[in-house]
Amino acid sequence: MELGQSNDQGRRPPPLGLVGRSRGGFLPRPGETARGASGLPPLGLTGRATAPAQQSFVIGQSGFEPKRRETVVPVCRVGLTRPRRPPPAAQRPPPAADESGPSNWGNSSAGTGGGSSSNYVGFSLAGLGGLGFGGVGTDTTGSAFTFGNSSGATFGFGNSSGAAFGFGNSSGSTFGNTTNSTFGNTSSMFSHGGVHDVSNLFENADEHAPSQGHVQAPPRRVIDLNAWANRQTREYYSTETKRHIYATILMRNGTGHRMKHGVSASVARDLEVPRRVVGRIWTMGRLGGTINAVKCKRKGNSGRKKIPFDAAAMEAIPPTERTTLEALSEALNMKKSTLHRRLKEKKFRRCSSELKPSITPENIKQRLEYCLRNLEPASLAVEPTFKAGFNVVHIDEKWFHRTQKTENVYLTNTEEPPKRETKNKGHIQKIMFLSAMTRPRYDRDGNCTFDGKIGVWPYVEWVQAQKRSKNRLRGTWELKPMNHVGKADSREYLVKYVLPAIKNKWPLCDRWNTIYIQQDNAKTHVACDDPIVVSEAVKGNWDIRMVFQPPNSPDMNILDLGWFASIQSMFQKKFPKTIKEIVEKVDESLVEYPHEKLNRIFLTHQNCMRAIIKHKGSIHYDLPHMKKKALERQGLLPVRLKVDKDFVDAAVEFLNSQ
Length: 658
Description:
The protein is α/β, with parallel strands linked by helices. The chain has helices at residues 225-230, 239-253, 263-271, 275-288, 311-315, 325-332, 336-344, 361-373, 487-505, 531-537, 558-572, 579-592, 595-614, 628-634, 645-657, and strands spanning 55-56, 65-66, 116-118, 123-124, 132-133, 138-141, 146-147, 150-151, 156-157, 160-161, 166-167, 392-401, 430-437, 441-442, 448-450, 453-458, 460-464, 477-481, 515-519, 544-548.
C-alpha cells in the first residue's frame, strides 16, 4: 500500500482517537501532503515537531499544522551581575538608565510619599518605601522590608538603623542585638538575666529576701497513683439505668426490629454512655421481647473481696514488734503485699523515731525563755514576730571523717564499683573543724551583700616525724589532727581566728551594733566573761559578746540544725584520701555552699522556736514543712516568721506558774 492511501476496512480504530494507517505514520489532513514518519513525534504526545519549521501536533488529528512563532520578550535580570573579575566597590560605576541586566529601579524618583534611592545595583520599590534590597552604598529610607544598610526599616536584615525588627548590627531596633534595643543582649531594658523581684520591701535595708533567678512554673497537676492503679476499668450500669436507656431507644426508634440510622449515636450522646452499651441494651431487650428482659446481670456480692485492715489489732501489737513490714505481717497474719497496699491507701503510716537528748524541767524553762527573748518586743501586743537574727554568730565543732563505711553510687552495667580501702574501718581518719556562721544579707534588689560564711578552721597541728619510714624521713614536718581539744584550744581559736574573721567580714552598715557569738554548753567552751576573749572582742571599739544557747538543745543552733549535715554531704562527694585533702575539700565545700540554703536554715531555726513556744518548751514536736524553696521561687520567702499570740500568752503563763 502506498503512502497517503487509506484502507480502514476491517481495521479497528486506533487508540486515543488517532487516525492513521500505522504507528509509524499518520494520514495527512485534507489539502496537506503526506510526510514521512521520521518527522513525527512519539505516539500520543503533544508538542513541537523536530522539523525545522515550527509545527504542532494535536491528539486526535493526523498530520501537523504550522505554529506561529511567539515573540520573545527580553527578561530583565534583577540583581548583581557576576563578571569574571569584579572591580572594587569604590571603582564600580553605576549602570546606565537604559542598560539591561541589573535593575536600576532604585534610581527612579520615590515620589511625594517617601524616599527610596539606590546609587548602585539594587532593588527598591518607590513610593512609601515598601520593599527595598540594598547593596553597597544603598540608602533605603522608611522602607517596610529591607535587606542591607537600611535606615528606618520596619523589617531589616544587616546594618539597620531604627529598624522595628532587625537582625545584625541594629541601632535603636525594637528587636536587635545592640545598644538601646527594647529586647536585646546588651544594654537593653529587659535583658536575658530576668527582672529582679522588688515586691518585698522592708524598712531595714538589710532585711530583704534573696533574688529569684527562676520563673514561677504553673502548678503541677497532682495525680493519685493509687487511685489510678485501683480504679475499675469497666463501669457497671444498674437495672434502672439500663431500662431508662432502653425506653429512650424505643421512644426514638419505635417498635421496629431494626434500629434506625442515628438513634444509637443520639442516645449515647444525650445519656453520656458508650455507643456499644446502647447496642447491647437494644439487643438484650429485642431478644427478651419486653423491657423486663433488660436488667443488670451482675450480682450484688460478686467480685474479689477486699481484705479488711484492723487498726485496733495493730495498736495492740508492741511498737518493737512492728518495725518492719515483715514483722507487722507476721503479727497481723496478713501478707506483706496486702499491708503494702494498705500503706499506700494511707490506712496506716510509717514513722521515723529520732533519738533526742533528754531534758530536765529546768531545761524546758530555759528553752522557753530563749524563744521568748527572740521575739520583737514591739510586736508582742499585736502579732508576735521573731527577730531576724542578723547580729548572731553561731559557732560549734564538728568531726569530718575522710570517708564513710558505705557509699552509694549509681553505675552502668559495664562499670566497676570504686575500690576504697582503709587499714581499720573502726578508726577512719577524721578532723574536728570549728565553724562560725551568721545570716546572709541582701539589698533591695535581692542581691547578696554578705553571704554569712564567717569561716571554718580545722583543729590540726604540724608535728615532726619521730621515726623514719618509706614515705618520709625522720624529723619531717607532717600535718596531724589534734587528738584532744580543750578549753585553751577553744580560747586560742576564738582569739586567733573567729574574732578577726568577724571584724574583717562584718558589714560596715552594722559595724557599731552589738554582735552576739552563740555557743553550746560544752565543757571545753570558754565562759561568757572570759577576760582574754573579752579584751580581744572590744578591741577597735567593737561590741562583741559571748552567749550560751539553752542546754541539751541542738535545735537552737543553726549548725546542728542543718548546716553540718548539708556541708558534710557536699564534702563526702569529693572523696578525700589524706589529711591534707580533708582540709582542702572542706574549704572547697565552704566556698561552693550556696548562701540561699544558709538563709533557709535560719528560717528553720525560727520555725523550731515557734514549735517550742507552741509545745511549751518540749523537745518532742513535729516540725511542719514551710516549702521554703517554693516560696523562694515565687518571691514570697519571708525574712521573719510570726507566731500566734495565744501560744505566746500560754507560754508566758506557763513560765509564771513554775
